[in-house]
Design a protein that fits this description.
The complex is a heterodimer of chains A (290) and B (351).
Chain A: H1 9-42, H2 60-67, H3 69-103, H4 106-117, H5 124-135, H6 140-148, H7 161-185, H8 189-197, H9 202-230, H10 234-240, H11 247-256, H12 261-289
Helix pairs in contact in A: 1-12, 2-12, 3-7, 3-9, 5-10, 7-9, 7-10, 8-9, 9-12, 11-12
Chain B: E1 4-13, E2 16-26, E3 31-35, H1 42-50, E4 57-62, E5 65-66, E6 77-80, H2 92-102, H3 107-120, H4 136-148, E7 154-158, H5 166-183, E8 186-191, H6 194-200, E9 203-208, E10 211-216, H7 218-223, H8 228-233, E11 238-245, E12 248-251, E13 256-258, E14 268-273, E15 279-282, E16 292-304, E17 308-315, E18 318-325, E19 337-343, E20 348-350
Parallel strand pairs in B: 3-8, 3-9, 6-7, 7-8
Antiparallel strand pairs in B: 1-2, 1-4, 4-5, 9-10, 11-12, 11-14, 12-13, 14-20, 15-19, 16-17, 16-19, 17-18
Helix pairs in contact in B: 2-3, 2-4, 3-4
The chains are: A mainly alpha (290), B alpha+beta (351).
Pfam families (chain B): ABC_tran (PF00005), TOBE_2 (PF08402)
Protein name (chain B): Spermidine/putrescine import ATP-binding protein PotA
EC number (chain B): 7.6.2.11
Chain lengths: 290, 351
């Protein structure tokens, strides 16, 4: 900064932008801030403020998290699920994005791209139930394998941890492909050619040039996947069955089954705090990478 | 260092021939300019020497060794790209050291060699900067240092100066030439800028539509262009067409122009005259000696450029061009009827 801006310069910049900003912020206020505030309030109540119930303010809902180690264990399990799903999405999504951005051209790129974003067009519930048809014993995978293989196998992945992983990776993979595709496409081909002209093998080019330059996309994709997966409940419930108890399903239970909104709200905010803490801890490491 | 030979190389993209049967010897330690309009195949040829692309026919050898089976990372080349292609995630030092570190050169030797390269391109003290913190000229120098620090057998330059503004470009031309001479590396330089090719190259090859049109030292090509394309692409030229009779060309209006060499008689042919070889005299002036060609013309435009004046002239409905040094004499006015004179020695017959 060589010269300080004249007083009010920022103000005069903001004013013409207001009509553009206002609708978005008004909507965010109504749709997120107000309900979220109400949830914060709920999380400190003893009971729902319904007609015939008495309620008081309490910290008990937060204390409940620490009183039994069940919630802590489930939270760790959900964090592990988030990490695993994110890892698989990176391993599957990054090569796919690389091929889309750097290998394919023209019409074939469009076609493959369409296939990647196709899951976005279908209903999430339908996707999960269609996986159930595939994964269950006597299902599509089971029957197909038994039709080909000379010996009898039993592939019953339904209601297991792998089934939850498969369902979640399927649901969230497009985010990783899209964010990586955008950053990979922005890498000039001549950079890769320059590295190769300097004697770098394809693997070295990937490690020292492409991955560092694509890091913003990888991080954006990882955050977009990790955060919702940690709190996910639909895939664990439908595909996980009895082994599908995660932190997210417990929160859902509080709202839908047990009807203990205050506890559900408190557990949600603990999750939010933990996720923010994880991201804050990871930030310096990630920033050095980019 | 090494010589590079390209022998009978062709490259097709679908049915389009980007290069057709091109053979060039790039001498060891020389500075060779590949000149041509866009689409002439000069970049295709450079990329095949680099190993980014492979010929459909013919052979390429670097230092006597056939490189058909060698991918780019196994050839010992250095390349400077049009947009420099500096790695944005690395400092200037790491950019230059990249080629050494992927080859496993020890840390201390890497530091010494990078330092030497940085000194050579006069960038000392900027090692910690990121590419985006450098000016265009500085980026150019980093790209050059990065390409030569690995001691490649051949240095390939793909229009390296085209992204610089005019004044910087002239300075970098001299710099590039100095560095090339100091390192003594075989250099192949692609450009569409004829002035750049003339000032920098030891030899020039003119490419047109995938074929080698003419090749030789700059002065030789400039003074003896073999074709109309070579004459007009490398420098300015006035072209006259007519029927050949010995070393005379009869123009359509009956004028006879004497050429310095004979052409096959009876055929239609052309001759070229460089604008700076043409002298303009007012029609009333004294008659010239016999060893001169002369034409009457009318000045249609006078373009003043400080040290010189360009005249556009009308002769028989055709536009001719003549350059005159600004020697302080009164310039000719637009619309004036004049006579053009030039030596027979300056009349170049074209096949």
């Amino acid at each position: 900064m060589t010269a300080a801006p004249p007083p009010g310069a920022q103000h005069s910049q903001l004013r013409p932008a207001l009509p553009l900003l206002l609708p978005a912020y008004l909507w965010l206020t109504l749709a997120i801030f107000l309900p979220l505030s109400a949830m914060v309030f709920f999380s400190f109540m003893t009971d729902l403020p319904l007609a015939d119930r008495s309620w008081a303010m309490t910290l008990g809902n937060y204390a409940a998290f620490f009183e039994t180690d069940l919630y802590g264990r489930l939270l760790l399990r959900s964090l592990r699920l988030g990490l695993e799903v994110t890892l698989y999405c990176v391993l599957i999504g990054f090569p796919c994005a690389y091929v889309l951005a750097k290998v394919l051209k023209g019409r074939s790129r469009e076609a493959i791209f369409l296939l990647v974003i196709l899951p976005f067009w279908s209903n999430g519930l339908v996707r999960i139930f269609s996986w159930a048809i595939f994964l269950r014993g006597g299902g599509v995978i089971d029957s197909a394998l038994n039709a080909v293989l000379p010996f009898e196998v039993s592939v019953d992945l339904m209601y297991s941890y792998p089934a939850v992983i498969i369902g979640l990776v399927h649901s969230y993979l497009p985010y990783m492909v899209l964010t990586c595709y955008l950053t990979l496409q922005a890498i000039d081909d001549s950079l890769i050619e320059a590295a190769r002209s300097l004697g770098a093998s394809r693997l070295t080019v990937l490690r020292r040039l492409i991955v560092p330059l694509a890091m913003p996309g990888l991080i954006a994709g990882a955050v977009l996947i990790f955060v919702p997966v940690v709190g996910s409940f639909m895939e664990p419930r439908i595909l996980g069955g009895r082994s599908g108890t995660f932190y997210g399903t417990v929160i859902e239970d509080q709202f839908v089954a047990v009807f203990n909104w205050p506890l559900g709200a408190a557990l949600s905010f603990i999750l939010l705090a933990v996720v923010l803490a994880v991201l804050a801890l990871a930030a310096p490491v990630l920033r050095r990478q980019t | 260092m090494a010589e590079v030979t390209v022998h009978g190389v062709s490259r097709f993209f679908g049915s389009h021939a980007a290069l057709q049967d091109v053979s060039i010897d790039f001498p060891d330690g020389g500075f060779y300019g590949l000149l041509g309009p866009s689409g002439s195949g000069k970049t295709t040829l450079l990329r095949m020497i680099a190993g980014f692309d492979f010929p459909d026919a013919g052979a390429i050898a670097i230092g006597g060794e056939d490189v058909a089976a060698l991918p780019v990372q196994r050839r010992r080349i250095g390349m400077v790209f049009q947009n420099y292609a500096l790695f944005p995630n690395m400092s200037v030092f790491d950019n230059i050291a990249f080629g050494l570190s992927v080859r496993g050169v020890a840390r201390k030797e890497t530091r010494d060699r990078v330092e030497k390269a940085v000194d050579l391109v006069q960038l000392s003290g900027l090692g910690a900067r990121r590419p985006h913190q450098l000016s265009g000229g500085q980026r150019q120098r980093v790209a050059l240092a990065r390409a030569i620090v690995t001691r490649p057998q051949v240095l390939l330059l793909d229009e390296p100066l085209s992204a610089l503004d005019k004044s910087l470009r002239v300075g970098m031309q001299i710099e590039l030439k100095r560095i090339q001479r100091e390192v003594g590396i075989t250099t192949i330089f692609v450009t569409h800028d004829q002035e750049e090719a003339l000032t920098m190259s030891d030899r020039i090859g003119i490419l047109r539509d995938g074929r080698l049109e003419q090749e030789g030292p700059p002065a030789e090509i400039y003074d003896n262009p073999a074709s109309e394309f070579a004459a007009t692409f490398l420098g300015d030229a006035n072209i006259f067409r007519g029927t050949v009779d010995g070393n005379t060309i009869h123009l359509a209006d009956g004028t006879c122009l004497h050429c310095r060499e004979a052409l096959p008689p009876g055929t239609r042919a052309a001759c070229a005259v460089r604008p700076e070889r043409i002298m303009i005299r007012s029609t009333a002036g004294p008659v010239e000696a016999a060893a001169m060609n002369s034409l009457p013309a009318r000045i249609t435009k006078r373009i003043f450029a400080g040290n010189s004046i360009t005249y556009l002239l009308n002769w028989q409905g055709e536009t001719l061009k003549a350059f005159a040094q600004n020697t302080g004499t009164t310039p000719f006015d637009e619309g004036a009827a004049v006579t053009l004179h030039w030596a027979v020695e300056s009349t170049i017959p074209l096949s």
